[in-house]
What we know:
Two copies of one chain form a homodimer.
Chain A: H1 12-22, H2 30-40, H3 46-58, E1 63-65, E2 73-75, E3 82-86, E4 92-95, E5 114-125, H4 127-132
Parallel strand pairs in A: 3-5
Antiparallel strand pairs in A: 1-2, 3-4
Helix pairs in contact in A: 1-2, 1-3, 2-3
The first copy, chain A, binds a DNA duplex through helix 1 and helix 3.
Amino acid sequence: MRDHVEITRMTRQRRVIIEELRHLDTHPTADELYGLVKRRVPHVSLGTIYRNLDALAEAGVIRKLEMSGMQKRFDGNLEEHHHVRCISCGRVADVRVETDRDMDYPIMDASGYRITGQTVEFSGLCPECQKEDRPTN
Amino acid sequence: MRDHVEITRMTRQRRVIIEELRHLDTHPTADELYGLVKRRVPHVSLGTIYRNLDALAEAGVIRKLEMSGMQKRFDGNLEEHHHVRCISCGRVADVRVETDRDMDYPIMDASGYRITGQTVEFSGLCPECQKEDRPTN
DNA sequence: CTCAGTGCAAACGCTTTGCACAACT
DNA sequence: AGTTGTGCAAAGCGTTTGCACTGAG
Lengths: 137, 137
């Protein structure tokens, strides 16, 4: 589970992508990141963003968040943590839960699956959307 | 949170979709269901499948599973339960966990989100893929 | 010098939608 | 009869990919 692929060359594009991601806690989507990287490397292409995000995620340098039924988001923070998604605007934030309790899920379920991992995804209303106080939308 | 939209007309397509879904525990994707429904309603279209699945999910008759980075799957079982996804073949099964513990997550997180829900998604190897014993794939 | 990485644009896979017609109620 | 639902095909959207070129090592 820790058999990461190596990153061989460090291109300008790649470095900038990593830097932008490290300086953000907003879990940007590929195209949001594209916008940011483009400011510093104007000729960059969206394909390059995607290719690098995949490579970096496989190398374990960043994390790919594949959340329910949404565009993928990327996280420069490698520490173990969960996420909340705003049900109104889609924004994603980190959740720090005191979770030793996360480990006491069954290793083998009745269904015969050998369970190897679990993700907890919270949903709720972000501070901004609470203000606008549209009850659910 | 229980403000379901009403289903007004019961067409043949709609009835067959519900029936197929109720008789399955395999959480089919829209196109798998399309294949099944087509056997009984040969002229059905994929667009109709999608439109009905959305309508039925909104009406609370079925559940839409929006799992991490995959095609959506649909579940005729409305009881509260979690799912395991096979990391090898993508198959999805139900998990019954004794979860009163699910409720004791924080209502309000430090990030300022008002947390209203949570989903736990397990990953693992299904029985079939354990046999083929490709360690991860 | 070499080959991994890039830009560009086209293709892809899943899902949604516009339109004219069909069929529940 | 009236209007919701349908089939079909086209469009949409995020993501991936083929190709010739570029640049890191």
